[in-house]
Amino acid sequence: MNKIETYKDIYAGAKKKLSWKVTDQRSVMLIASLYVTENLEFDGDRLEAMADFIKKKVGFFTTLHSHQRYLFAAMLITRFQDPKTAFQSFISTYKALVDEGFSMGAYTYISAMVLISAENTDGETSSRAMEVYKKMRKKHFFLTGQSDYPLAMLLAQRTKDTDLLIDHIEYFYDKLNLSGFNKGNDLQTMSHILSLVEDEDPDDLVTRCTEIFDCLKEEGIRPKSMFYPQVAMLAFLKNGKDQISELKEIRESLNEKIRWQKDMNFMMAVNLHLSNQIDNSSLLQMNLSTTIEALIQAQQSATIAAIGGATAATHNGS
User: Can you list the pairs that 77-83 forms with residues at least 24 positions away whose Cβ atoms lie under 8 Å?
Assistant: First the structure.
């Protein structure tokens, strides 16, 4: 069974299991994608038990006490062999980030998850991430907010020269805007994603992004700014523009199963397609596979945080 069919099956199972617990359809979609991209069989009872474990360990007025705990439970189960032990590290890391200056709430929880999921980090990563965030905010005050925490954390893991990194991000932002991409938060996110790979020619990546965006139009997919991050992820494939028709087929297949979520279905189609590329390692260089895998996780995390934005605004973290 391919990943698309597996995703549909897991979505159906998760929707049935969590019908009265997770009311946001997008959250169920994300839970399914976490299991599929990590090639893990879905176990609804185990997920529910882990979510209950989290609820008992956190305060009442926290993000993790809300329905968001099912998403975090899924991340812990799919990324760690011992999710309960990983949870303790997750909470400790969250508290350390708050001490570092990160605001309490969903985006810092996501950043903590990004940090503990990384294979190569050092003791300065969290402080470097805050430094990256502050420099982002200095460049784009009105665009930069807590939603940028997770990518700042991912970027901080990739380089120690934050000034050079910010210049790299700004180059992409300006060049993409000149190529027809609209200024705004989505373009900033796109620039962050493209900056994660240092050994690719920036101009080549911008050209690929433009070609992919044009191909979306040709395939009848309305090229919304919310898709900029997905365009950036596809640009890491040398032949990304040639795979848009396949992505359209995947999205249409998902639209038949999951109605009223066309935009989310496109995002999931990109994640599933890239995950397939990773599994077929002959299509990708090893270092690029690692980067795309990190990008998928970061994009899943960013979407989870965005869905939980209302929760983040009304709950204090602990």
Answer: 77/40, 77/46, 77/47, 77/50, 78/34, 78/35, 78/37, 78/38, 78/40, 79/38, 79/117, 79/297, 83/50
Residue that has been written with the tokens 């990384």 in this structure: 118
Can you tell me the distance from the alpha carbon of 318 to that of 311, in angstroms, rounded to the nearest whole number? Answer: 14
Per-residue pLDDT at 315 exceeds 80 = no
Instruction: For residue range 226-236, list pLDDT tens digits in order.
Output: 999 999 999 98
pLDDT of residue 1 exceeding 70, the answer is: no
Q: Lowest mean pLDDT of 55-59, 102-106, 292-296, name the range.
A: 292-296
* Count of other CB atoms within 10 angstroms of residue 188: 23
Q: Six-digit token pair at 224?
A: 């919304």
pLDDT at 152: 93
Residues found in the chain: 318
Looking at the whole model, is its pTM more than 0.85? yes
Q: What percent of the chain has pLDDT over 70?
A: 92
Give the long-range contacts of residues 276-279, CB within 8 A, separation 24 or more.
276/2, 276/3, 277/237, 279/3, 279/39
For 151-154, the CB contacts below 8 A with 24+ separation are: 151/189, 151/192, 151/193, 151/298, 151/302, 152/111, 152/192, 153/111, 153/114, 153/115, 153/125, 153/126, 153/129, 154/114, 154/196, 154/294, 154/298
Q: How far is CA 15 from the centre of its chain?
A: 21
Among 129, 139, 141, 146, smallest CA distance to 168 is for 139
* Contacts with 96 (C-beta within 8 Å, 6 or more apart), sequence order: 126
> In the chain, what is the greatest distance between 2 CA atoms, to the nearest angstrom?
51
What residues contact residue 203 under an 8 Å CB cut-off, 6+ apart? 175
Question: Which element (helix H / strand E) includes 295?
Answer: helix 286-307
Q: Which two tokens stand for residue 250?
A: 């995947």
